[in-house]
Design brief:
Elements lengths: L6 E14 L3 E14 L3 E5 L6 H8 L7 E6 L2 E2 L5 H10 E4 L13 H11 L6 H14 L16 H13 L5 E5 L7 H18 L2 E6 L2 H7 L2 E6 L2 E7 H6 L4 H8 L6 H6 L30 H5 L5 E4 L2 E3 L6
Helix pairs in contact: 3-4, 3-5, 4-5, 5-6
Bound molecules: adenosine-5'-triphosphate and magnesium ion (MG).
Length: about 325
């Protein structure tokens, strides 16, 4: 699938299963392949529980894998020795889904942001740490004097800025942004997206940007990967995905976003999904989306479609798309 050398992260047939009960397996990520080029943003979307967080965390080696491979700059993420692993945690960071739960309420902001600087011995002395933390706080648009305060004194948007400052502290090149805006008001969401975009330009960052609705993802992503029940349904450029979505699941997700322009709104294909997402412990036979897809036919219930090229840089896993 990958024909370029500017690839930072490459994922091949990745599987992450969780054991549930005595015998059953929950297939959170089930045979997923994609790549992220240096400097780009890959958006990852899909409904709650489809495996986005698990995929991001497994790519960073936070979780062991069940199968497949993740390589970062050509190196196996799950096969790194201790020293290489330490350097990798400098290069690759994560901004967590929930800014309320991911920041320690007992620590001052300056200590939260300084943690990585200390762990990776990136500063010369205490004065240097203080200077770096102040610089990071102002980079993310917070008053450097806020360092002596505690998390509960900040709003959701400010907390997410603290989370971003913490991730930036070790000067990473790749950041998994796990729904960094979902817990925020719409007006604040745009501010955080703009901040991430500015930082990406200034620091040449590469992002994996996880979200469960498609509207904000369009503004930040170069390409978008759509996941459903642990599988990739479609990957293509952000523009192509919004203008010519191929997979019925992508079309259904897009149908859920209101379009401000009434002409576009009138011409849009609307797809309604029936029913609930099935359990990843016991997913449907054939295509995972078949029981909710308005176009499903016999083949969809029997054969699992593979992710196939359907156009330039456009891949979909659907029997109707080939
Ligand atoms: N540590 C775990 N142990 C067992 N099951 C897990 C674990 N983490 C996630 N899962 C399950 O794996 C599936 C995928 O979860 P994941 O958190 O990756 O989804 P998600 O796409 O990030 O959802 P959301 O949009 O709600 O954050 C879910 O069914 C979830 O219950
Ligand atoms: Mg998640």
């Amino acid at each position: 699938m990958v024909d370029n050398t500017d690839c930072l992260l490459e994922v091949q047939g990745l599987k992450k299963y969780f054991k549930v009960g005595k015998k059953k397996m929950l297939r959170a990520v089930d045979d997923v392949s994609f790549y992220i080029r240096k400097g780009e943003t890959l958006g990852v979307v899909g409904e709650s529980g489809c495996g986005k967080t698990t995929c991001g965390r497994t790519c960073l080696g936070i979780y062991d894998k069940t199968g497949g491979q993740v390589t970062y700059r050509g190196e196996d993420v799950h096969g790194m020795d201790k020293e290489r692993r330490r350097r990798f945690t400098e290069q690759a960071q994560i901004i967590f889904q929930d800014p309320y739960a991911s920041l320690d309420p007992k620590m001052k902001i300056q200590e939260i942001v300084a943690e990585g600087i200390r762990a990776h011995k990136m500063a010369e002395d205490e004065a240097d740490i203080k200077k770096r933390v102040e610089g990071l706080l102002s980079t993310v648009g917070l008053d450097p004097a806020y360092g002596s305060r505690y998390v509960h004194e900040f709003s959701g948007g400010q907390r997410q800025r603290i989370g971003i400052a913490r991730a930036l502290a070790v000067e990473p090149e790749f950041i998994v942004c796990d729904e960094p805006i979902s817990a925020l008001d719409v007006s604040i969401q745009a501010q955080i997206v703009n901040l991430l975009k500015r930082l990406q330009k200034e620091k040449e960052l590469t992002y994996m940007f996880i979200a469960h609705d498609l509207s904000m993802v369009k503004h930040i992503s170069d390409r978008v990967m759509v996941m459903y029940l642990g599988k990739v349904m479609e990957i293509t450029t952000a523009d192509q995905l919004y203008d010519h979505p191929a997979h019925p699941y992508t079309q259904a997700l897009l149908s859920a976003i209101p379009i401000p322009d009434p002409r576009v709104e009138a011409g849009k294909v609307r797809i309604r999904m029936e029913g609930e997402i099935p359990s990843p412990v016991d997913p449907p036979e054939g295509c995972r989306f078949q029981n909710r897809c308005p176009y499903a036919e016999k083949k969809c219930r029997e054969e699992t479609p593979v992710l196939e090229k359907i156009g330039e840089g456009h891949f979909a896993a659907c029997h109707r798309c080939g």
